[in-house]
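Tutorial handout. Part one gives the primary structure; part two gives the three-dimensional structure as C-alpha coordinates.
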Amino acid sequence: MRIVKKLIYSLSLVLPLLCFCSCHGSKSLPEFFIPDEFDSSKEYNISFWAKNDTNQVQQNVYSDAVKEFEKIYPNIHVSIVQYNDYTKIYSDVITNIATKTTPNIAICYPDHVATYMEGKNVVVPLDSLISSEKYGMSGSEVKFDSTSKDMYYSKFLDECIINDSYYMLPFMRSSEAMYVNKSYLIENGFSIPKVFTWDYVWEICEYAEKKSNAQNTIMVPLIYKSTDNMFIQLCKQNNFDYTTDNGDVLFMSDDVNNMLVNLGEKSQNGYFDTFKRISYPGNFFNKGQCIFAIDSTAGSTWLGSDAPLLDIDSSTVVQFETLVTTIPQVDVDNPKMISQGPSICLFNKENNQEVLASWLFMQYLLTNKVQIDYSKTEGYVPVTKKATESKEYIDYLNDENEYSVKIDATKLVLNNIDNTFITPVFNGSANARSASGYLIEALFSGYTTKEQIDTLFNNVDSRYKLSTFVKGEIVKPDVKGVNQYLGYCLLGVIGIVWIGIGIYFLKNYVLRKR
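Part two.
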Protein backbone atom coordinates (compact mmCIF):
# COMPACT_ATOMS: atom_id res chain seq x y z
CA MET A 1 0.00 0.00 0.00
CA ARG A 2 3.02 2.28 0.42
CA ILE A 3 3.35 2.53 -3.37
CA VAL A 4 -0.33 3.38 -3.73
CA LYS A 5 0.01 6.14 -1.15
CA LYS A 6 2.96 7.59 -3.01
CA LEU A 7 1.03 7.51 -6.26
CA ILE A 8 -2.00 9.19 -4.69
CA TYR A 9 0.26 11.79 -3.09
CA SER A 10 1.84 12.52 -6.48
CA LEU A 11 -1.61 12.88 -7.99
CA SER A 12 -2.55 15.41 -5.31
CA LEU A 13 0.39 17.56 -6.45
CA VAL A 14 -0.39 17.23 -10.13
CA LEU A 15 -4.06 18.21 -10.00
CA PRO A 16 -3.49 21.76 -8.66
CA LEU A 17 -0.87 22.31 -11.37
CA LEU A 18 -3.38 21.22 -13.97
CA CYS A 19 -5.95 23.64 -12.61
CA PHE A 20 -3.38 26.44 -12.63
CA CYS A 21 -2.43 25.78 -16.23
CA SER A 22 -6.05 25.63 -17.28
CA CYS A 23 -6.87 29.00 -15.72
CA HIS A 24 -3.68 30.97 -16.20
CA GLY A 25 -3.90 33.66 -18.87
CA SER A 26 -7.59 33.13 -19.50
CA LYS A 27 -8.69 36.48 -18.04
CA SER A 28 -8.10 39.71 -19.94
CA LEU A 29 -9.45 43.23 -19.84
CA PRO A 30 -12.77 43.86 -21.58
CA GLU A 31 -12.77 45.86 -24.77
CA PHE A 32 -13.12 49.58 -24.11
CA PHE A 33 -16.21 51.47 -25.20
CA ILE A 34 -16.99 55.16 -24.70
CA PRO A 35 -19.59 55.84 -21.98
CA ASP A 36 -22.59 57.85 -23.13
CA GLU A 37 -21.81 60.47 -20.48
CA PHE A 38 -18.80 61.25 -18.35
CA ASP A 39 -19.77 60.74 -14.70
CA SER A 40 -18.42 63.88 -13.06
CA SER A 41 -19.97 62.98 -9.71
CA LYS A 42 -17.24 60.40 -9.06
CA GLU A 43 -13.56 60.83 -8.22
CA TYR A 44 -10.88 59.41 -10.52
CA ASN A 45 -7.23 58.88 -9.70
CA ILE A 46 -5.13 58.52 -12.83
CA SER A 47 -1.39 58.19 -13.36
CA PHE A 48 0.84 59.57 -16.09
CA TRP A 49 4.34 58.20 -16.65
CA ALA A 50 6.27 61.13 -18.10
CA LYS A 51 9.80 61.56 -19.39
CA ASN A 52 12.23 64.42 -19.04
CA ASP A 53 16.00 64.77 -19.25
CA THR A 54 16.42 65.68 -15.57
CA ASN A 55 15.16 69.05 -16.76
CA GLN A 56 13.38 70.92 -13.97
CA VAL A 57 11.69 73.22 -16.47
CA GLN A 58 10.12 70.22 -18.21
CA GLN A 59 8.98 68.84 -14.87
CA ASN A 60 7.37 72.18 -14.12
CA VAL A 61 5.52 72.12 -17.45
CA TYR A 62 4.01 68.76 -16.52
CA SER A 63 3.18 69.92 -12.97
CA ASP A 64 1.55 73.12 -14.21
CA ALA A 65 -0.49 71.13 -16.73
CA VAL A 66 -1.82 68.92 -13.96
CA LYS A 67 -2.73 71.91 -11.77
CA GLU A 68 -4.60 73.68 -14.58
CA PHE A 69 -6.36 70.49 -15.69
CA GLU A 70 -7.50 69.69 -12.14
CA LYS A 71 -9.04 73.17 -11.88
CA ILE A 72 -11.15 72.32 -14.94
CA TYR A 73 -11.92 68.76 -13.79
CA PRO A 74 -11.69 68.82 -9.96
CA ASN A 75 -12.87 65.21 -9.75
CA ILE A 76 -9.89 63.93 -11.79
CA HIS A 77 -6.66 63.66 -9.83
CA VAL A 78 -3.47 63.15 -11.84
CA SER A 79 -0.26 61.78 -10.38
CA ILE A 80 2.95 62.01 -12.41
CA VAL A 81 5.84 59.57 -12.28
CA GLN A 82 8.93 61.23 -13.78
CA TYR A 83 11.41 59.09 -15.72
CA ASN A 84 14.64 60.16 -17.42
CA ASP A 85 14.88 57.10 -19.67
CA TYR A 86 12.40 55.92 -22.31
CA THR A 87 13.58 52.31 -22.05
CA LYS A 88 12.87 52.30 -18.31
CA ILE A 89 9.27 53.35 -18.96
CA TYR A 90 9.04 50.58 -21.57
CA SER A 91 10.38 47.87 -19.27
CA ASP A 92 8.23 48.98 -16.34
CA VAL A 93 5.08 48.95 -18.47
CA ILE A 94 5.92 45.43 -19.69
CA THR A 95 6.31 44.32 -16.07
CA ASN A 96 3.05 45.94 -15.01
CA ILE A 97 0.99 44.53 -17.87
CA ALA A 98 1.20 41.12 -16.24
CA THR A 99 -0.26 42.44 -12.99
CA LYS A 100 -2.73 44.84 -14.62
CA THR A 101 -1.08 47.79 -12.90
CA THR A 102 -0.09 49.81 -15.93
CA PRO A 103 -0.33 53.60 -15.72
CA ASN A 104 -3.33 55.26 -17.32
CA ILE A 105 -1.15 57.23 -19.75
CA ALA A 106 2.50 56.86 -20.66
CA ILE A 107 5.08 58.51 -22.86
CA CYS A 108 5.98 55.99 -25.55
CA TYR A 109 7.47 55.17 -28.92
CA PRO A 110 5.69 53.15 -31.63
CA ASP A 111 8.02 50.15 -31.20
CA HIS A 112 7.07 50.02 -27.54
CA VAL A 113 3.33 50.16 -28.17
CA ALA A 114 3.55 47.38 -30.76
CA THR A 115 4.92 45.15 -28.01
CA TYR A 116 2.33 46.29 -25.45
CA MET A 117 -0.37 45.31 -27.92
CA GLU A 118 0.60 41.64 -27.62
CA GLY A 119 -1.57 41.73 -24.51
CA LYS A 120 -5.25 41.62 -25.36
CA ASN A 121 -7.01 44.99 -24.87
CA VAL A 122 -4.03 46.41 -22.99
CA VAL A 123 -3.70 49.57 -25.11
CA VAL A 124 -6.84 51.46 -26.09
CA PRO A 125 -7.34 52.11 -29.82
CA LEU A 126 -8.13 55.80 -30.11
CA ASP A 127 -10.20 56.01 -33.31
CA SER A 128 -13.60 56.15 -31.63
CA LEU A 129 -12.33 58.56 -28.97
CA ILE A 130 -10.79 60.88 -31.55
CA SER A 131 -14.02 61.05 -33.55
CA SER A 132 -16.42 61.20 -30.59
CA GLU A 133 -18.73 64.21 -30.99
CA LYS A 134 -18.89 64.70 -27.23
CA TYR A 135 -15.43 63.80 -25.94
CA GLY A 136 -13.28 63.61 -29.04
CA MET A 137 -10.89 66.20 -30.42
CA SER A 138 -12.69 69.55 -29.99
CA GLY A 139 -15.70 67.60 -28.70
CA SER A 140 -18.78 69.46 -27.49
CA GLU A 141 -18.47 68.18 -23.89
CA VAL A 142 -14.73 68.83 -23.51
CA LYS A 143 -14.31 71.67 -21.01
CA PHE A 144 -11.13 73.19 -22.48
CA ASP A 145 -9.99 74.35 -25.90
CA SER A 146 -8.90 70.99 -27.30
CA THR A 147 -7.26 70.71 -30.70
CA SER A 148 -9.28 69.43 -33.63
CA LYS A 149 -7.86 66.59 -35.71
CA ASP A 150 -7.34 68.76 -38.78
CA MET A 151 -5.01 71.02 -36.78
CA TYR A 152 -2.49 68.24 -36.13
CA TYR A 153 0.35 67.70 -38.56
CA SER A 154 -1.02 64.75 -40.52
CA LYS A 155 2.44 63.21 -40.89
CA PHE A 156 2.86 63.14 -37.12
CA LEU A 157 -0.58 61.63 -36.62
CA ASP A 158 0.10 58.98 -39.26
CA GLU A 159 3.15 57.90 -37.29
CA CYS A 160 0.77 56.81 -34.54
CA ILE A 161 -1.09 54.25 -36.66
CA ILE A 162 -0.58 50.54 -35.99
CA ASN A 163 -2.68 47.94 -37.78
CA ASP A 164 -4.80 50.69 -39.37
CA SER A 165 -5.82 52.24 -36.03
CA TYR A 166 -4.49 55.08 -33.91
CA TYR A 167 -2.88 53.65 -30.79
CA MET A 168 -1.01 56.83 -29.80
CA LEU A 169 -1.10 60.57 -30.18
CA PRO A 170 2.09 62.48 -30.98
CA PHE A 171 3.35 64.57 -28.08
CA MET A 172 6.52 66.23 -29.38
CA ARG A 173 8.57 65.76 -32.52
CA SER A 174 12.25 66.14 -33.27
CA SER A 175 14.77 64.79 -35.73
CA GLU A 176 18.53 64.53 -35.90
CA ALA A 177 20.75 67.48 -36.72
CA MET A 178 24.44 67.80 -37.46
CA TYR A 179 26.04 70.42 -35.25
CA VAL A 180 29.12 71.73 -37.07
CA ASN A 181 32.14 73.62 -35.75
CA LYS A 182 31.89 76.14 -38.56
CA SER A 183 34.92 78.08 -37.33
CA TYR A 184 37.15 75.02 -37.74
CA LEU A 185 36.04 74.50 -41.33
CA ILE A 186 36.62 78.13 -42.28
CA GLU A 187 40.01 78.27 -40.56
CA ASN A 188 41.14 75.16 -42.43
CA GLY A 189 39.91 76.26 -45.84
CA PHE A 190 36.79 74.10 -46.22
CA SER A 191 33.67 75.45 -47.90
CA ILE A 192 30.25 75.33 -46.19
CA PRO A 193 27.64 73.62 -48.40
CA LYS A 194 23.93 73.99 -47.85
CA VAL A 195 23.70 70.21 -47.38
CA PHE A 196 26.72 68.08 -46.49
CA THR A 197 27.29 64.78 -48.26
CA TRP A 198 28.77 61.80 -46.46
CA ASP A 199 31.72 61.81 -48.86
CA TYR A 200 32.54 65.41 -48.02
CA VAL A 201 32.17 64.78 -44.28
CA TRP A 202 34.55 61.80 -44.47
CA GLU A 203 37.03 63.92 -46.42
CA ILE A 204 37.06 66.51 -43.63
CA CYS A 205 37.27 63.78 -40.97
CA GLU A 206 40.34 62.30 -42.66
CA TYR A 207 42.00 65.72 -42.75
CA ALA A 208 41.18 66.43 -39.09
CA GLU A 209 42.44 63.05 -37.90
CA LYS A 210 45.76 63.42 -39.71
CA LYS A 211 46.19 66.98 -38.41
CA SER A 212 45.47 66.02 -34.81
CA ASN A 213 47.91 63.10 -35.01
CA ALA A 214 50.61 65.41 -36.34
CA GLN A 215 49.96 67.93 -33.56
CA ASN A 216 49.43 65.23 -30.91
CA THR A 217 46.07 66.72 -29.92
CA ILE A 218 42.72 65.13 -29.06
CA MET A 219 40.27 65.12 -31.95
CA VAL A 220 37.29 62.88 -32.68
CA PRO A 221 36.14 64.33 -36.02
CA LEU A 222 32.57 62.96 -35.90
CA ILE A 223 30.59 61.62 -32.95
CA TYR A 224 27.18 60.01 -33.51
CA LYS A 225 24.79 59.95 -30.55
CA SER A 226 22.45 57.19 -31.83
CA THR A 227 24.04 54.37 -33.79
CA ASP A 228 20.55 52.92 -34.31
CA ASN A 229 19.63 56.06 -36.23
CA MET A 230 22.96 56.13 -38.05
CA PHE A 231 22.38 52.65 -39.45
CA ILE A 232 18.69 53.15 -40.25
CA GLN A 233 19.21 56.48 -42.03
CA LEU A 234 22.15 55.18 -44.06
CA CYS A 235 19.97 52.30 -45.22
CA LYS A 236 17.18 54.70 -46.13
CA GLN A 237 19.46 57.14 -47.96
CA ASN A 238 21.05 54.30 -49.95
CA ASN A 239 17.67 52.64 -50.65
CA PHE A 240 18.78 49.47 -48.87
CA ASP A 241 16.07 47.24 -47.42
CA TYR A 242 15.63 47.53 -43.65
CA THR A 243 12.40 45.84 -42.58
CA THR A 244 9.10 45.37 -44.36
CA ASP A 245 5.69 46.60 -43.27
CA ASN A 246 4.92 42.94 -42.50
CA GLY A 247 7.83 42.79 -40.10
CA ASP A 248 10.40 40.83 -42.10
CA VAL A 249 13.98 41.82 -41.22
CA LEU A 250 15.93 42.41 -44.45
CA PHE A 251 18.96 44.47 -43.51
CA MET A 252 21.46 41.60 -43.30
CA SER A 253 22.16 41.83 -47.04
CA ASP A 254 25.17 42.11 -49.34
CA ASP A 255 24.52 45.82 -49.83
CA VAL A 256 24.52 46.45 -46.10
CA ASN A 257 27.58 44.21 -45.73
CA ASN A 258 29.50 46.44 -48.15
CA MET A 259 28.27 49.55 -46.33
CA LEU A 260 29.49 48.18 -43.00
CA VAL A 261 32.86 47.20 -44.44
CA ASN A 262 33.27 50.80 -45.57
CA LEU A 263 32.23 52.17 -42.17
CA GLY A 264 34.43 49.63 -40.42
CA GLU A 265 37.47 51.01 -42.20
CA LYS A 266 36.55 54.54 -41.13
CA SER A 267 36.03 53.43 -37.53
CA GLN A 268 39.50 51.90 -37.48
CA ASN A 269 41.00 55.07 -38.94
CA GLY A 270 39.48 57.14 -36.14
CA TYR A 271 37.20 59.22 -38.36
CA PHE A 272 34.17 58.76 -36.10
CA ASP A 273 33.08 57.38 -32.78
CA THR A 274 29.85 56.89 -30.84
CA PHE A 275 28.14 58.03 -27.67
CA LYS A 276 28.05 54.50 -26.24
CA ARG A 277 31.80 54.21 -26.59
CA ILE A 278 33.10 57.58 -25.44
CA SER A 279 30.55 60.17 -24.27
CA TYR A 280 27.89 62.62 -25.33
CA PRO A 281 28.85 64.38 -28.58
CA GLY A 282 28.53 67.75 -26.87
CA ASN A 283 31.21 66.93 -24.33
CA PHE A 284 33.85 66.81 -27.09
CA PHE A 285 32.17 69.29 -29.40
CA ASN A 286 32.06 72.08 -26.81
CA LYS A 287 35.77 71.60 -26.10
CA GLY A 288 36.64 72.00 -29.79
CA GLN A 289 37.64 68.31 -29.96
CA CYS A 290 34.90 67.33 -32.41
CA ILE A 291 33.90 68.93 -35.72
CA PHE A 292 30.63 67.13 -36.43
CA ALA A 293 28.29 66.21 -33.56
CA ILE A 294 25.20 64.36 -34.72
CA ASP A 295 22.51 64.40 -32.08
CA SER A 296 18.79 64.93 -31.69
CA THR A 297 17.43 68.42 -32.21
CA ALA A 298 16.01 67.90 -28.71
CA GLY A 299 19.61 67.87 -27.48
CA SER A 300 20.40 71.31 -28.93
CA THR A 301 20.56 73.02 -25.54
CA TRP A 302 23.64 70.91 -24.72
CA LEU A 303 25.62 71.83 -27.84
CA GLY A 304 27.67 74.91 -28.71
CA SER A 305 30.01 77.33 -26.97
CA ASP A 306 27.13 79.12 -25.22
CA ALA A 307 25.01 76.04 -24.49
CA PRO A 308 22.78 76.66 -21.46
CA LEU A 309 23.18 73.02 -20.36
CA LEU A 310 26.61 71.46 -19.90
CA ASP A 311 28.02 68.14 -18.67
CA ILE A 312 31.58 69.50 -18.58
CA ASP A 313 33.40 72.20 -16.65
CA SER A 314 32.62 75.54 -18.26
CA SER A 315 36.31 76.44 -18.12
CA THR A 316 37.04 73.75 -20.75
CA VAL A 317 34.58 75.19 -23.29
CA VAL A 318 36.13 76.96 -26.30
CA GLN A 319 34.53 79.67 -28.41
CA PHE A 320 33.52 78.90 -32.00
CA GLU A 321 30.57 79.42 -34.32
CA THR A 322 28.07 76.56 -34.42
CA LEU A 323 26.20 75.67 -37.60
CA VAL A 324 23.05 73.55 -37.34
CA THR A 325 22.29 71.61 -40.50
CA THR A 326 20.77 68.37 -41.72
CA ILE A 327 22.62 65.11 -41.19
CA PRO A 328 24.97 64.12 -44.07
CA GLN A 329 23.15 62.87 -47.15
CA VAL A 330 23.84 60.45 -49.98
CA ASP A 331 21.62 62.44 -52.36
CA VAL A 332 21.42 66.16 -51.48
CA ASP A 333 18.44 66.59 -53.80
CA ASN A 334 16.47 63.94 -51.92
CA PRO A 335 17.31 64.41 -48.22
CA LYS A 336 16.11 61.79 -45.77
CA MET A 337 16.14 62.13 -41.99
CA ILE A 338 14.43 60.16 -39.29
CA SER A 339 11.38 61.44 -37.45
CA GLN A 340 11.54 60.94 -33.72
CA GLY A 341 10.15 62.29 -30.51
CA PRO A 342 7.75 60.94 -27.90
CA SER A 343 4.10 60.04 -28.26
CA ILE A 344 1.52 59.19 -25.60
CA CYS A 345 -0.65 56.10 -25.31
CA LEU A 346 -3.74 55.24 -23.28
CA PHE A 347 -4.03 52.03 -21.26
CA ASN A 348 -7.24 50.12 -20.75
CA LYS A 349 -8.83 49.63 -17.33
CA GLU A 350 -11.83 47.77 -15.91
CA ASN A 351 -13.63 51.10 -15.43
CA ASN A 352 -14.48 52.82 -18.73
CA GLN A 353 -15.12 56.09 -16.90
CA GLU A 354 -11.52 56.03 -15.64
CA VAL A 355 -10.27 55.54 -19.19
CA LEU A 356 -12.41 58.46 -20.40
CA ALA A 357 -11.01 60.65 -17.61
CA SER A 358 -7.51 59.69 -18.72
CA TRP A 359 -8.34 60.49 -22.34
CA LEU A 360 -9.43 63.98 -21.33
CA PHE A 361 -6.07 64.63 -19.67
CA MET A 362 -4.30 63.11 -22.65
CA GLN A 363 -5.99 65.69 -24.86
CA TYR A 364 -5.05 68.44 -22.45
CA LEU A 365 -1.38 67.63 -23.01
CA LEU A 366 -1.93 68.59 -26.66
CA THR A 367 -3.29 72.07 -25.95
CA ASN A 368 -1.32 75.13 -27.03
CA LYS A 369 0.04 76.10 -23.62
CA VAL A 370 1.49 72.67 -22.83
CA GLN A 371 2.80 72.17 -26.36
CA ILE A 372 4.50 75.55 -26.61
CA ASP A 373 5.85 75.58 -23.05
CA TYR A 374 7.38 72.12 -23.41
CA SER A 375 8.83 72.77 -26.87
CA LYS A 376 10.65 75.83 -25.53
CA THR A 377 12.67 73.68 -23.14
CA GLU A 378 14.65 71.97 -25.94
CA GLY A 379 14.70 71.71 -29.73
CA TYR A 380 11.30 70.02 -29.93
CA VAL A 381 8.52 70.97 -32.30
CA PRO A 382 4.83 71.04 -31.26
CA VAL A 383 2.76 68.44 -33.10
CA THR A 384 -0.13 70.77 -33.92
CA LYS A 385 -0.34 73.55 -36.48
CA LYS A 386 -2.59 75.28 -34.00
CA ALA A 387 0.48 75.72 -31.78
CA THR A 388 3.16 76.39 -34.40
CA GLU A 389 1.01 78.97 -36.20
CA SER A 390 0.15 80.83 -33.03
CA LYS A 391 1.56 84.31 -32.40
CA GLU A 392 3.21 83.15 -29.19
CA TYR A 393 5.17 80.43 -30.96
CA ILE A 394 6.17 82.63 -33.91
CA ASP A 395 7.41 85.26 -31.44
CA TYR A 396 9.41 82.54 -29.66
CA LEU A 397 11.15 81.51 -32.91
CA ASN A 398 12.08 85.14 -33.56
CA ASP A 399 13.19 85.95 -30.03
CA GLU A 400 16.84 87.04 -30.12
CA ASN A 401 17.19 86.28 -26.41
CA GLU A 402 16.60 82.56 -27.00
CA TYR A 403 19.61 80.28 -27.52
CA SER A 404 20.25 80.49 -31.28
CA VAL A 405 21.39 76.84 -31.66
CA LYS A 406 18.12 75.63 -30.14
CA ILE A 407 16.07 77.89 -32.42
CA ASP A 408 18.05 76.79 -35.49
CA ALA A 409 17.51 73.12 -34.57
CA THR A 410 13.78 73.72 -34.12
CA LYS A 411 13.51 75.48 -37.48
CA LEU A 412 15.45 72.64 -39.08
CA VAL A 413 12.71 70.20 -38.10
CA LEU A 414 9.89 72.52 -39.16
CA ASN A 415 11.51 73.03 -42.56
CA ASN A 416 12.07 69.31 -43.14
CA ILE A 417 8.85 67.67 -42.00
CA ASP A 418 8.25 66.36 -45.52
CA ASN A 419 11.77 64.88 -45.62
CA THR A 420 11.37 62.82 -42.45
CA PHE A 421 10.48 59.14 -42.30
CA ILE A 422 9.76 56.41 -39.78
CA THR A 423 10.49 52.68 -39.93
CA PRO A 424 7.77 50.00 -39.97
CA VAL A 425 6.34 49.15 -36.56
CA PHE A 426 5.64 45.59 -35.46
CA ASN A 427 6.15 43.34 -32.46
CA GLY A 428 9.90 42.86 -32.72
CA SER A 429 10.75 46.18 -34.39
CA ALA A 430 12.37 47.33 -31.13
CA ASN A 431 14.72 44.33 -31.38
CA ALA A 432 15.49 45.11 -35.00
CA ARG A 433 16.32 48.69 -34.07
CA SER A 434 18.63 47.59 -31.24
CA ALA A 435 20.32 45.12 -33.58
CA SER A 436 21.01 47.84 -36.14
CA GLY A 437 22.83 49.94 -33.56
CA TYR A 438 24.79 46.91 -32.39
CA LEU A 439 26.06 46.38 -35.94
CA ILE A 440 27.62 49.85 -35.93
CA GLU A 441 29.10 49.50 -32.45
CA ALA A 442 30.64 46.13 -33.33
CA LEU A 443 32.71 47.69 -36.13
CA PHE A 444 35.06 49.12 -33.51
CA SER A 445 35.91 45.57 -32.44
CA GLY A 446 37.64 44.97 -35.77
CA TYR A 447 34.92 43.73 -38.12
CA THR A 448 36.33 45.13 -41.35
CA THR A 449 36.01 42.40 -44.01
CA LYS A 450 33.01 40.93 -45.81
CA GLU A 451 33.57 37.56 -44.13
CA GLN A 452 33.77 39.15 -40.70
CA ILE A 453 30.58 41.09 -41.32
CA ASP A 454 28.83 37.85 -42.31
CA THR A 455 29.92 36.43 -38.96
CA LEU A 456 28.62 39.60 -37.32
CA PHE A 457 25.26 39.11 -39.03
CA ASN A 458 25.03 35.60 -37.57
CA ASN A 459 25.95 36.90 -34.13
CA VAL A 460 23.39 39.70 -34.20
CA ASP A 461 20.71 37.35 -35.55
CA SER A 462 21.23 35.05 -32.59
CA ARG A 463 21.66 37.88 -30.07
CA TYR A 464 18.40 39.63 -31.02
CA LYS A 465 16.51 36.57 -32.35
CA LEU A 466 15.83 38.34 -35.64
CA SER A 467 15.11 35.12 -37.55
CA THR A 468 12.06 34.55 -35.33
CA PHE A 469 10.29 37.57 -36.80
CA VAL A 470 7.77 36.48 -39.39
CA LYS A 471 5.22 38.99 -40.68
CA GLY A 472 5.50 41.17 -37.64
CA GLU A 473 5.03 38.46 -35.06
CA ILE A 474 7.52 36.67 -32.89
CA VAL A 475 7.21 32.96 -33.59
CA LYS A 476 6.64 31.52 -30.16
CA PRO A 477 3.87 29.58 -28.44
CA ASP A 478 1.38 31.96 -26.89
CA VAL A 479 0.33 31.63 -23.28
CA LYS A 480 -2.76 29.67 -24.19
CA GLY A 481 -0.75 27.29 -26.35
CA VAL A 482 1.79 26.72 -23.60
CA ASN A 483 -0.97 26.05 -21.09
CA GLN A 484 -2.60 23.54 -23.42
CA TYR A 485 0.69 21.78 -24.00
CA LEU A 486 1.41 21.58 -20.26
CA GLY A 487 -2.13 20.47 -19.63
CA TYR A 488 -1.77 17.57 -22.08
CA CYS A 489 1.52 16.57 -20.43
CA LEU A 490 -0.03 16.62 -16.99
CA LEU A 491 -3.02 14.62 -18.17
CA GLY A 492 -0.54 12.09 -19.50
CA VAL A 493 1.17 11.95 -16.12
CA ILE A 494 -2.17 11.45 -14.41
CA GLY A 495 -2.97 8.65 -16.83
CA ILE A 496 0.33 6.95 -16.08
CA VAL A 497 -0.32 7.28 -12.33
CA TRP A 498 -3.73 5.61 -12.66
CA ILE A 499 -2.30 2.89 -14.87
CA GLY A 500 0.36 2.27 -12.20
CA ILE A 501 -2.31 2.05 -9.54
CA GLY A 502 -4.30 -0.37 -11.67
CA ILE A 503 -1.26 -2.56 -12.33
CA TYR A 504 -0.47 -2.58 -8.59
CA PHE A 505 -3.97 -3.74 -7.60
CA LEU A 506 -4.10 -6.26 -10.43
CA LYS A 507 -0.77 -7.74 -9.36
CA ASN A 508 -1.95 -8.05 -5.72
CA TYR A 509 -5.20 -9.61 -6.87
CA VAL A 510 -3.36 -12.26 -8.92
CA LEU A 511 -1.01 -13.07 -6.02
CA ARG A 512 -3.93 -13.50 -3.61
CA LYS A 513 -5.65 -15.90 -6.04
CA ARG A 514 -2.51 -18.04 -6.12
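Part three, for discussion. Residues 1-26, 470-488 have pLDDT under 50 and may be disordered. The chain has 19 helices and 18 strands.
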